Amino acid sequence: MCGNGIRCVxxxxxxxxxxNKKTVTVETLAGIxxxxxxxxxxxxxxxxxxxxxxxxxxAGKWMVSGGEGQMSVKVPQGTFVDMGSPHxxxxxxxxxxxxLEEDGPAIERSGLFPDGCNIEFAQVTDDSTIRAxxxxxxxxxxxxxxxxxxxxxxxxxLTGRTDRQSTIVMDGGRLHIDWRKDDNHIYMTGxxxxxxxxxxxx
Length: 202
Known about the structure:
Elements: H1 3-15, E1 23-28, E2 31-39, E3 45-51, E4 79-82, E5 86-91, H2 100-108, E6 118-126, E7 129-136, E8 140-142, H3 146-158, E9 165-170, E10 173-179, E11 186-191
Parallel strand pairs: 5-6, 7-9
Antiparallel strand pairs: 1-2, 2-3, 3-11, 4-5, 6-7, 7-8, 9-10, 10-11
């Protein structure tokens, strides 16, 4: 499930009059997600808030139990978060020193994650803002990752670095994450913009 993609789905169906509702649900492999659409002065969707569900820190099906002895490299201490896709969040004092193109694949392919894992490096810049960079499994370095932003926010809260609301700043933009107490769900708010339109012959 793609956290950024689901906002774009909401924008598309509303802007193309496939629905006139500003609250829509989308069925994904990670479950049914509810999207609240926000429109600009022209009536087009410019951002959306997605209920991403409850995070989990159960790494049982994603990480090798006692796998440290099988690892090909030393994996830095981090926090595992399952947002429907697996994430391993590593906090650093200076994110600019991270060699993501080397460290990302080395950690993912270390032997600790048999089915791969998304790797996030994060730096807390103040009590509600976190800078993050992403190595996405199967894709490599990506400018932004919605589920990754959620995972970073969860990891920061669990390790006492931030409160339940935070802004995650990635190379491709920023997302506001709200981990609500009342239902334990993660709510992700971010932009959705049309880049281009085209046709594909199938």
